Every structure is written in C-alpha cells, then in structure tokens.
C-alpha cells in the first residue's frame, strides 16, 4: 500500500516514516508538512492511507479531512495522530479509520496500519472482481453479426462465415461455404464496412476474409497469389500488395525473400496463423 504522512513537525514525520520503512506491505510513502502540500500531492498521486496529525497550524487535520472528502471521489483510509483527547473524540465523530494518541509507540501505529492494509487489500480485491465481472459479461455477449437484405428478408450473418466478396457490376457477391448473397452495394463501401472484421482488398473487385487465407505464393509475373480454404486461388494485384502484411500478426520472412518454384509459385508458410 502507499501512505502519505501529513504532520507539521519534522520529528513526527521522521518517527512515522521509520515505522513505515519496517513494514513489508508498504510499497512507498511520501510526506507533507501542511494541508496545502498534502492536497497538492493527492491531486497527482493516489494513496491507500494518510497518517494525519490533527494539530497543525492554519488548516488542522480535521479540516483537511473535510476538504479531502469534498474534492476526492475515492477517500484513502485516515489514521489521525493527536496528543489531545478531545480531538481524538472529534476524529472518531468524523469516522476516521483509527486515532493514535501521542506520544505514540511503534506497536500502536503498526496496529492501525494492519487495519488499513486489510482494507486496502479488500478494496483491491473488490475492484478486481468488478473488472473480471465486466470482462466476463463482455465475453458472453452475442457475437457480432452483419445484417443483409436478401430476397425480401433480412439475414443475420457472422462475418467469419464470409470467405470473400466480389464486385459484379452495381452489385457485390458475398460468398460463404454453403451459399452466396447478391447485394446492391459498391465494393468500396463494403471494403470500409468490413475492414474492422478482418477483410482486406486484394483487387479492385475482390475482398477476402483474412482468417480464410491459408497460403500466399509469389508468381513469376511478379504478383502474388492466395489460396483460400476450400482450395480457391486468387491473384493479388500490385496496387493492393501491401495489404497482405495484415494477414498475419508477425512474419518469419519478408516479401522480397520469396523465390519462384518450378510450377511458377512459392508458398509462404502462413497456414494456421492467419488472424481469427
């Protein structure tokens, strides 16, 4: 946990710092000599606990606590340190986590910090559970689907099921394993809409699903070819050659390293590493 010491007396700050130095659960601590410095530090950093002297000039520890509550959404644990019994009672009325009377002993400060440490650990665990719960909720959401109009009906299709998209005049053909859908749309519009779903353009008239590409090969004509799942092969024009880089998260070799094989092409080992 991280701790802020707030006390106007240097001797008190040193004594509290010595206690914190001996604790393994204290990740770090800082000191402030008055309320203004404390508020400044708390505006740029977060703390799990504040060891706060009640009797300080100008702005007392009690007044500082009220300012902290008015300006901070998350309030650290507050342990007051005071030599006056009435101030201790007032601190408890303000719902401080603990109050230590001067002259304090190390064991008493340690006891207060033990309580603070458990609270900090519980709050961190609660925040972690909340984050995990949110992540689990996101993972359980329905998969993303695209809606297309086909023969008077609206079909809901998972983008992963679309292997390629091919322009046909004023229409485009969405090709899946089992069926195809002819839509009145431009290839450029679909290229933009499907880009976030892992589709790349390899020809002015063709989009392919990256997860369906199983092999890239270099042709003797200087262009590249693709083999899709199911065996279909397509040519990548020079204009869209750079798009091939997005087919894999990393490359073992680069494009210039390809060489021609006897039948006119050399495969790049890409199988099973295309983006899902």
Element layout with pairings:
Layout: E1 2-6, H1 10-21, E2 28-32, H2 35-44, E3 49-53, H3 61-71, E4 77-82, H4 85-93, E5 98-101, H5 106-139, E6 146-150, E7 153-157, E8 162-168, E9 171-176, E10 180-183, H6 187-194, E11 199-203, E12 206-209, E13 213-218, E14 224-228, E15 233-236, E16 267-268
Parallel strand pairs: 1-2, 1-3, 3-4, 4-5
Antiparallel strand pairs: 6-7, 8-9, 8-12, 9-10, 11-12, 13-14, 13-16, 14-15
How would you sum up this structure, described in words?
The protein is of the alpha/beta class. It folds into 2 domains: 2-139, 3-Layer(aba) Sandwich (Rossmann fold), CATH 3.40.50; 146-268, LytTr DNA-binding domain (OB fold (Dihydrolipoamide Acetyltransferase, E2P)), CATH 2.40.50.1020. The chain contains 6 helices and 16 strands. A hairpin with a 2-residue loop joins strand 8 (162-168) and strand 9 (171-176). The longest helix has 34 residues, at 106-139. It starts with a strand and ends in an 8-residue tail after the last strand. The model is unreliable at 256-276 (pLDDT under 50).
């Amino acid at each position: 946990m991280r701790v802020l010491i707030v006390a106007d007396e240097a001797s008190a700050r040193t004594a509290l710092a010595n206690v914190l130095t001996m604790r393994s659960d204290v990740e770090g601590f800082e000191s402030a000599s008055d309320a203004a410095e404390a508020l400044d530090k708390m505006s740029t950093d977060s703390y799990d606990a504040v060891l706060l002297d009640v009797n300080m000039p100008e702005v007392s520890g009690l007044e500082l606590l009220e300012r902290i509550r008015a300006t901070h959404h998350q309030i650290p644990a507050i342990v007051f340190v005071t030599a006056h019994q009435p101030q201790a009672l007032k601190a408890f009325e303000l719902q401080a986590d603990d109050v230590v009377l001067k002259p304090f002993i190390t064991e008493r400060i340690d006891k207060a910090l033990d309580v603070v440490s458990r609270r900090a650990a519980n709050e961190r665990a609660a925040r972690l559970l909340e984050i995990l719960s949110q992540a689990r909720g996101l993972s359980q959401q329905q998969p993303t689907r695209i809606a297309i109009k086909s023969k008077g009906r609206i079909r809901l299709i998972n983008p992963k099921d679309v292997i390629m998209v091919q322009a046909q005049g004023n229409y485009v053909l969405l090709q899946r394993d089992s069926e195809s859908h002819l839509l009145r749309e431009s290839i450029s519009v679909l290229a933009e809409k499907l880009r976030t779903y892992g589709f790349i353009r390899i020809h002015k008239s063709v989009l392919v699903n990256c997860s369906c590409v199983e092999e890239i090969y270099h042709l003797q004509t200087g262009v590249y070819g693709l083999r899709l799942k199911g065996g279909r092969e397509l040519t990548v024009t020079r204009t869209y050659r750079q798009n091939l880089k997005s087919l894999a998260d990393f490359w073992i070799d680069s494009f210039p390293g390809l060489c021609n094989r006897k039948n006119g092409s050399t495969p790049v080992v890409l199988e099973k590493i295309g983006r899902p």
